[in-house]
Amino acid sequence: MIYFDNSATTAPCDAVIKAATEELTSNAAFGNPGSLHKLGVDAKKRYASYHDECAKLLGCAPEELYFISCATEGANTAIRGALAANKRAGKTIISTRTEHKATLSPLEELAQEGYNVVYLPVGSDGIPSEETFEQALKDNDDVALICLTYVNNETGAKLPDDIYIELRKKYAPNALCYVDFVQALGKVPCDLRLCDMASFSGHKIHSVKGCGLLYVSKDAKVKPLILGGGQQDGMRSGTESPFLASLFTAALSEAYANMDEAYGRVAGINRYLREELAKRNVTVLSPDNAIPFVLNVSFPDFQSETMLHCLEMYDIYVSTVSACTSKSKKVSYVLLEAGVPQKLASNAVRLSFSRYNTMDEAAKFIEAVDDIYDKFLVRK
Ligand code: PLP
Q1: Is the same domain home to 114 and 227?
Q2: From ligand 1's centre to the CA of 281, what distance in Å?
Q3: Which domain holds residue 209?
Q4: The domain boundary residue, chosen from 256, 275, 305
Q5: Which of 104, 182, 219, 284 is the most buried (most CB within 10 A)?
Q6: Which among 80, 87, 143 is positioned nearest to 106, based on CA atoms?
Q7: Are 246 and 265 in a shared domain?
């Protein structure tokens, strides 16, 4: 199998499988961290140690991190919670239309509730320009929240390293900034000092589905979305799961230990594929500022879904648009927003890599593409 769909989800790595076994089989592993007896105290200690380890890796305080079920929960909590806790901050939210649905859907609902959501246009590089961002901040003196994605899941387009912090400080010093770091985590540095809230997803970094992390700066006021027993300082009620926290932590730790090596290896694969695909008249849709882990390309003469299923016959897995919208069979809104013509966008295929992919797989992918053109294309 050749798996080039790592932006959709990733296979659990060995460290995660080991952590799962240890957590499930260790003495008293099932204890509830909220219990007063020894089993609970032990579970609480382990849970705290996972907070500590993640905080160390991400460069923040353990009290600024909350284990959550997924990044969608993180986005909803950050967006809704920030506005609910800062009702007088203003009525304007700045974002883009290329955000993941985890951000776009709550924003759409907030617009219906009366918020002024300003969607910045993105350029062919897939990101809003500094000028556009500055203009929106100048035009709106009541910005309460800014929501941006550091690395786009469909194209790999990356925001500038500083995430426009100077402009934010200058024009909207009180606005909170939420950054979706889901596709950046473990691939490029994620500087939490540049935002007030951030979300991360375990299943994108070789952990399992069902675990994620929400960062809320100690200086930001955010109301919890989920109310209940007051666990995790009341920010995220629900019985704490040392099991899931351990699986997130193991994956994060492994990703950080291998980050530089992984970047170099994946950059090599990306370069090779760009060169080989260019020889075959395949158009690269990912912009130049994209991180190498995502390569969005448009094959001539094959619609996205046809190519996806052709590749599947070779045991090669890719995706068309992002996994959560792929079933609607729509052309990618992210590509259209970045000005990609409809015809190219409707043939788009996203290849997304992880540190486990190899050059050999990339070469086999190219062989499969050649075979597909030979076998299935009736040339005019
Ligand atoms: N943000 C981005 C950029 C994503 O790619 C995804 C998942 O595809 C999400 C948010 C949502 O993550 P989760 O599946 O953990 O809810």
Answers
A1: yes
A2: 31
A3: 14-256
A4: 256
A5: 182
A6: 80
A7: no
Strands 316-317 and 2-3: parallel
Domain count, the chain: 2
- What pLDDT sits at residue 330? 79
Percent of the chain exceeding pLDDT 70 equals: 97
Residue 301, class by beta-carbon neighbours within 10 Å (0-12 exposed, 13-18 middle, 19+ buried)? middle
Alpha carbons 45 and 203: distance in angstroms, whole number: 24
Q: Is 71's C-beta closer than 6 angstroms to any atom of ligand 1?
A: yes
Average pLDDT, the chain: 95
Which CATH number characterizes residue 287's domain? Answer: 3.90.1150.10
In this structure, are residues 48 and 254 in contact, taking their beta carbons and an 8 Å threshold? Answer: no
Name the helix (H) or strand (E) containing 144: strand 143-149
Does the beta carbon of 180 lie inside 6 Å of ligand 1?
yes
pLDDT at 329: 60
pLDDT tens profile 81-113: 999 999 999 999 999 999 999 999 999 999 999
pTM of whole model > 0.85? Answer: yes
Residues whose CB is less than 8 angstroms from the CB of residue 2 and which lie 6 or more positions away in sequence, other chains included: 314, 315, 316, 317, 357, 361, 364, 365
Question: Is 324 tagged catalytic?
Answer: yes
Residue 73: predicted pLDDT: 98
Q: b or e along 251-280 (b: 16 or more beta carbons within 10 Å of the residue's beta carbon)?
A: bbbbbbebbeebbebbeebbeebeebbeee
Asked if residue 212 has its Cβ within 6 Å of ligand 1, the reply is: yes
Domain match, 152 and 195 both: yes
Pick the atom of ligand 1 nearest to 201's CA.
15
- The encoded tokens of residue 140 equal 């709106």
